Amino acid sequence: MLTLSDAKDIATIGGAVVALFALIKAVVEYGHQGAQKRAEHFVLMRKRFKENESFRELCVLIETDDPSLKEIPFKDKRDLLGFFEEVALMTNSRLIRASVAHYMFGYYAIRCWESENFWSSVNRKSAYWTLFRDFCER
């Protein structure tokens, strides 16, 4: 026969099992939300990169280190470098996975770093581009 004490123990164990299940479910859901937010950040960055006319033009010129890069306004170069630094910051803070960031943006960042004509009006050795340089080196 079930005593009041036994029923209380069973209810306590049952409550603990339900609480543990709820905790596990919450942790799994939190992980899914983190992945979803990372994906959203990546999609936004990719969209900004692909839809920016200035970035597209610069990337075409960077591809061959075109001499006309010397004539591109500093502001446009700074904006592209700033974009790559945002990608690096998001990678460093794990909002975007490093492998994804390097796969999607690394090629053009490296081509930019190696382009002598791009850097003609920008001081490549400036401490301001340390984050960009680190991203390219990785």
What does the secondary structure layout of this molecule look like, with pairings?
Layout: H1 4-51, H2 53-63, H3 74-92, H4 98-114, H5 130-137
Helix pairs in contact: 3-4, 3-5, 4-5
Brief account:
The protein has 138 residues and is mostly helical. 75% of the residues lie in helices and 0% in strands. The longest helix is centred in the first third of the chain and has 48 residues, at 4-51.
| First and last CA, distance | 69 Å
Uncertain residue segments: none
Backbone shape: rod-shaped
The helix count comes to 5
Count the beta strands. Answer: 0
Q: Using only CA atoms, what is the Rg?
A: 25 Å
**Helicity level, as a percent range?**
over 70%
Helical/strand content category: mainly alpha
Mind summarizing the main beta sheet? none
What does this molecule look like?
The structure is a single chain. This protein has 138 residues and is mainly alpha-helical. Helix content is 75%, strand content 0%. The chain contains five helices and no strands. It has helices at residues 4-51, 53-63, 74-92, 98-114, 130-137. α4 crosses α5. It starts with a helix and ends with a helix. The model has no long low-confidence stretch (mean pLDDT 88).
Characteristic key phrases:
single chain; 138 residues; mainly alpha
